[in-house]
Backbone:
């Protein structure tokens, strides 16, 4: 403020002094008039200088005010973010503690708490999915295997078990109740991974708000009690070593990228009607009473080796993309007797590319038993990751490495 006053005074004094000096050099009769005009002009210069400084100070004050407001907003946003993260961490921690409870209702509450957390905070959805998958990977023996069919037949934990000398864990106390907990975990996954839109609709319309897009499932060695994956869409999934105790329904499901079914056991059936495998699908050393791939879509490398089925594997009206990416050097392995026709098959508008129809040729092999690749298989380049040995009709291949 003092600097502004000094500046105005200096400008007024300098302007007035210069103008008075000029006025003194004028005509003698008009010097008084010229001196008055010089004084007025000098004062006007001072007033203008003061106004300019006032505008400058006002602009600076506004700038400082805006900076302070922006800083306050940043602090508020940071504080809100920190509070939200603390709240999420607290909810997550409590939910995890509930999953470790010996009481099934508390474990169910933990599952629903995680579901709510993931629904309200999309950035944490993969973490919640990872937790649910980890829970399903925990060792579990279904009630049928243990000979118990109701909760009443399951004994309560005794004093010795409570003291820690007996086997602890959720499924060690109430297998039937643990069955319901696992069933709930599976249904939470399927509910939020279900997308009924086809490929065209995904570009034109938004997904259901409950749909969790781009998830990865790690269900290796999991025991899955009632797997209904109808119309679900997932990015990548690994079911290696999993057991489906009541069968598995993948009808109309979509795997955008890779999926592994190595050493999978379907106690009843594996239903893959109109499934779309977006890139690689690996079935090795898998067993099922029945496998249905009718009208399935194989968009990439397909490996069906050492698969056994009590009934013939169904591949009627299945299609395979003819110009799929072979950048890894991988080819396809179909069940004995099955091959892909090189004739392009027209599909609906949502399926682009050149597609070949899977056809069954009359061979001596039983289409329901796949003990290893035969002459009907597309051969792999020996230079790739697939290792082959033996004669032409008895060749065995090792499964590709999981990545």
Residues:
């Amino acid at each position: 403020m003092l600097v502004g006053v000094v500046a105005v005074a200096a400008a007024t004094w300098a302007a007035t002094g210069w103008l008075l000096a000029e006025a003194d050099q004028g005509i003698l009769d008009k010097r008084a008039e010229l001196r008055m005009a010089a004084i007025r002009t000098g004062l006007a210069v001072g007033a203008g200088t003061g106004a300019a400084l006032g505008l400058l100070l006002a602009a600076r004050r506004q700038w400082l005010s805006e900076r302070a407001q922006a800083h306050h907003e940043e602090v508020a946003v940071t504080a809100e973010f920190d509070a939200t993260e603390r709240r999420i961490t607290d909810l997550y921690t409590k939910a995890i503690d509930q999953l470790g409870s010996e009481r099934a209702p508390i474990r169910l509450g933990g599952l629903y708490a995680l579901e709510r957390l993931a629904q309200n905070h999309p950035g944490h959805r993969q973490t919640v999915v990872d937790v649910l998958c980890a829970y399903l990977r925990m060792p579990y023996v279904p009630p049928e295997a243990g000979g118990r069919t109701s909760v009443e037949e399951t004994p309560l934990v005794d004093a010795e078990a409570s003291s820690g000398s007996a086997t602890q864990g959720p499924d060690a106390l109430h297998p039937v109740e643990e069955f319901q907990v696992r069933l709930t975990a599976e249904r939470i996954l399927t509910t939020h991974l279900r997308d009924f839109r086809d490929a065209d609709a995904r570009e034109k319309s938004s997904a259901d708000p409950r749909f969790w897009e781009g998830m990865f499932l790690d269900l290796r060695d999991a025991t899955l009690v009632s797997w209904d994956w109808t119309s679900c869409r997932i990015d990548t999934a690994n079911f290696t070593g999993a057991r489906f105790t009541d069968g598995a329904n993948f009808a109309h499901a979509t795997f955008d990228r890779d999926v592994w079914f190595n050493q999978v056991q379907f106690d009843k059936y594996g239903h893959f009607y109109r499934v779309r495998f977006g890139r690689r699908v690996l079935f090795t050393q898998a067993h099922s009473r029945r496998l249905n791939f009718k009208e399935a879509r194989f968009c990439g490398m397909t490996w069906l080796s050492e698969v056994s089925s009590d009934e013939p594997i169904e591949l009627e009206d299945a299609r395979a993309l003819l110009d799929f990416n072979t950048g890894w050097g991988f080819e396809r392995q179909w069940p004995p007797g099955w091959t892909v026709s090189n004739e392009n098959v027209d599909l609906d508008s949502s399926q682009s590319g050149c597609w070949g129809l899977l056809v069954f040729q009359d061979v001596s092999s039983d289409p329901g038993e796949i003990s290893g690749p035969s002459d009907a298989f597309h051969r792999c380049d020996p230079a790739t990751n697939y290792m082959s040995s033996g004669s032409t009709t008895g060749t065995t291949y090792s499964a590709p490495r999981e990545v």
In short: Residues 31-99 form the longest helix (69 residues). The mean pLDDT is 77. DSSP finds nine helices and 23 strands in the chain. The two ends are 70 Å apart (CA to CA).
